[in-house]
Specification:
By secondary structure, the protein is of the alpha/beta class. It has eight helices and twelve strands.
Length: 232
């Protein structure tokens, strides 16, 4: 029997976690949840999920704080995270993406949209696992798709799932200009209605992480971005 994809939900609203437990269960996922953010990390480690859905607005310990804990945890740091929030301001979305969220959805949300986003992220993971070209080397950077790692001058650097996908996309297209829409479609698999600010946030984060690699992501004004080797 094929094992089901495990999804862990963290939200202080029991009605919502009960609803997601039911709806995601109907889609064939194995779901566990926590209504207490202080217990969530331990429960998630025990469950070993393949994706986490995380609410932002929770008392005492909010979703941003919990996300930082997840990204610092040896067992959970690579698990993709979708954040939920009742606040519609773009600053919350940007903050979540900057701290390592892979996607963001505002409340109230349509359950089918959430399921589509879950499947999109899981498809990216599967695509990475099935890719036969295991290593890409450029400058001082080595990307190993087999163990999902990136090292610079021999030192391993932590990349989130989306950051890894983004730098991989650029490495495969070195020297070619990529528009924001191309990146959204190629990396996020979303249509062009998703905000292009999402791309800019991830570009900033990746630039910092590859600063010592001998590579740079150049901004082509009015067009997009291009990865190349630094000119010294």
């Amino acid at each position: 029997m094929t094992s089901r994809i495990r999804i862990f939900v963290v939200d202080d609203e029991k009605d919502l976690t009960d609803l997601l437990h039911y709806q995601l269960g109907k889609e064939g996922f194995e779901v566990k949840f926590s209504n207490n953010p202080f217990e969530a990390l331990g429960k998630a480690r025990d469950f070993n999920p393949e994706l986490i859905i995380l609410d932002v607005m929770m008392p005492d310990l909010d979703g941003f704080q919990l996300l930082r804990m997840i990204r610092s945890d040896n067992l959970l740091q690579k698990v993709p995270v979708i954040m939920l929030t009742a606040k519609s301001g773009v600053e919350h979305r940007i903050k979540g993406l900057e701290q390592g969220a892979d996607d963001y959805l505002g409340k109230p949300f349509d359950s089918q949209e959430l399921i589509l986003r879950i499947r999109s992220i899981l498809k990216r993971l599967a695509d990475q696992s099935n890719d036969t070209n295991s290593r890409i080397m450029l400058g001082k950077l080595v990307l190993d798709e087999e163990d999902h790692s990136i090292s610079i001058a021999g030192d391993k650097i932590d990349f989130t799932l989306t950051e890894f996908k983004l730098i991989h996309y650029f490495l495969k297209r070195k020297g070619r200009v990529q528009t924001r829409d191309n990146l959204l479609l190629g990396v996020w698999k979303f249509d062009t209605e998703v905000e292009t600010r999402t791309v800019d946030v991830h570009i900033r984060r990746v630039r910092k992480k590859i600063a010592d690699s001998g590579l740079e992501i150049e901004t082509i004004r009015g067009v997009g971005y291009r990865l190349g080797e630094k000119i010294t």
